[in-house]
Amino acid sequence: MQIREVVRKLQPYVWEPSNEQIALSVGLKPGEIVRFDTNVSPNPPSSLLIKLASQLNEMRVNEYPDTSYTKLRRAISNYAEVTMDQIVVTCGADEALDMAAKTFIDHGSFAVTSSPTYALFKIVTELMGGNVKPVPRLEDFEDDVEGLLKAASTESRVIFLCSPNNPTGNISRRETVVSLLSEAGCAVVVDEAYYEFSGRTVVDLTKKYDNLVVVRTFSKAFSLAGARVGYMISSPETAGMLNKVRPPNSVSVISLLLSEAALNDLELMRRNVELIVRERDRCIKFLEECSGVKVYPSHANFVLLRFEKGGAERVYSRLLKKGLVVRCLSGTPGLEGCLRFNVNLPEKNDLLLEALATECG
Ligand code: PMP
């Protein structure tokens, strides 16, 4: 049996361990574990589930879904203010990124990233036999436009941006995206998984630029991470190309119903976003009063912290022993001393803030 060279050499995505695994490693019960590391919503969308329950009887799970996802694309087209032929529905934003790599990356070509950023950009590129050129971000994690353009000038097929950026929380400036779109000559994929928390988007630029692909998801603001629904928005011509590599039935009828229901109740999503943003700002304000820790501003549902005298790994382990799971990023270039936590319910955030305040002394 022969395994592809790129797969043998691949550094795969580091899956988050389960509550059971974490509990076992620190001698707690699974119910005592509180997650701040997965960037999902703490509020299950109960009203959507009740609606789904009332429709279960008539659900044609014996049949494939409508593979052109017409109903959902119509709802997304109203929400995002684009035409239906600009939309490609995917099984989460991660499948969208995988499809973008399949569409743009040839063996031996390059993708450019503004580093540090979402780990999957590198993985999907390498799986296609491409390589990533990471361009370090500037002060306060701003994109280095000149650096990105320079890196994109040879054999580069795509620039991956993430706005708001996971894990730094800042957004890419609109003028940065416009410069890259007009000057780089390759595709620009903007991952807007956390868009709803910032309200800032470049979707409208898809009407002008054929080389722009915006990636979105129902996993964050819409509280549907477990349903696995995402989508891409681009020009109709580019959407046609992306559609060529789309697996025919990767979104289930159940997930389609849930995401359609979510778009029919935008108030529910907006209330969720409001709660999270309010809690995020409360956490940031609290931590700004603590000594020895730098708190970065955030346009997303998570916050990045830097322990100025190091010791982030130690803090991470001590939090873990209390059942509080954050993401330790200290090993990532540019993020030395950094931890990231997602905003949770107020009483859970209180637990984390109290524990962090103890660490700051
Ligand atoms: N993009 C970014 C920037 C993310 O942080 C995540 C979630 N980890 C994803 C995409 C994946 O989203 P989905 O659940 O829709 O696959």
Bound molecules: 4'-deoxy-4'-aminopyridoxal-5'-phosphate
Strand order of the largest sheet: 2-8-7-6-5-3-4
How large is the share of residues in beta strands? Answer: 15-25%
Number of strands: 13
Radius of gyration based on Cα positions: 21 Å
Tally of helical runs: 14
**Biggest sheet record:** 7 strands, mixed
Bulk shape: globular
Distance between the termini: 56 Å
* Unreliable runs: none
How would you characterize the overall build of this protein?
With 361 residues, the protein is an alpha/beta fold. The chain is 40% helix and 16% strand. It has 14 helices and 13 strands. The strands form three sheets. It has a seven-stranded mixed β-sheet with strand order 2-8-7-6-5-3-4, with helices on both faces. Strands 9-10-13-12 form a four-stranded antiparallel β-sheet. The protein has a two-stranded parallel sheet with strand order 1-11. Helix 4 runs parallel beside helix 11. It is globular and about 55 Å long. It starts with a helix and ends with a helix. The relative contact order is 0.16. The model has no long low-confidence stretch (mean pLDDT 96). The protein binds 4'-deoxy-4'-aminopyridoxal-5'-phosphate. 4'-deoxy-4'-aminopyridoxal-5'-phosphate (PMP) binds next to helix 5.
